[in-house]
Amino acid sequence: MNRPVIGIIGNQYFIDDCYPVHAVGRMNLDVIAHVAGAMPYVIAADPALVSVAELMQVCDGFLLTGGRANVHPEHYGEPPSASHGAFDEARDAITLPLVRSCVEVGQPILGLCRGFQEINVAMGGTLHPEIRDLPGRDNHRMPPDGTLEEQFALRHVVRLAEDGIFHRLIGAQEVMTNTLHGQGIKTPGPRIAVEGHAPDGTAEAIHVIGARGFALAVQWHPEWNAATDPVSRPLFEAFGAAARHWNAGHGPAPVRKSA
Fold this sequence. Notes:
Elements: E1 5-9, E2 11-15, E3 19-23, H1 26-34, E4 39-43, H2 52-58, E5 61-64, H3 89-105, E6 109-112, H4 114-122, E7 126-128, H5 148-151, E8 156-160, H6 165-170, E9 174-177, E10 184-187, E11 192-197, E12 203-208, E13 215-218, H7 232-247
Parallel strand pairs: 1-4, 1-5, 5-6, 6-13
Antiparallel strand pairs: 2-3, 7-10, 8-9, 8-11, 11-12, 12-13
Helix pairs in contact: 3-4
């Protein structure tokens, strides 16, 4: 059987500050190929290049990756400010309607970091522009210096709701995760269930209530060392299983732990 195709949302960059590209981090490609067991398909997230309808025909599922640019606050009814950072409005124009369409039909989606925030916004939620500025909150941003191993190191506990989707999938109620984000959920969308929290109260794991298929997201970066991480591996294995179910023509699949 052919591997299912998982579209990986790319980000816009400039090589040498002058040559524009759409790119995806290698660790995202590796985790889809080697843990989810699917064929990674890099998506140039720009409506001038692709459409949501085309992407849904080509792909069996979608990985919404992290990225330095943030969701534009106009999508949740707030004016932009310096604290919101940089934006990628072309990506917003693809991912937000893509999330809603996938939820409607049951096509699998998994959000990571910015992708976690995109799913909340697409479902009617709002974001804090800078978590570390809130009273009692920690600094969740990536350490500015150090090796990748140091930047992606496990930094805090996430407590998962008892008998929730993530608890059943991962097999533990408390897990250790990395943290490399500035923004976070302010108000969950009406269909967003928050199942995981950091010690300071920051939302870390969500699913879409009533979604017909796999519609999960985490605020951390589980793609780092996913093949050997007991928290990350079952998440991507279940995502891959849902994509295979869709690819085989069976439609939406319930979220379940791989055998």
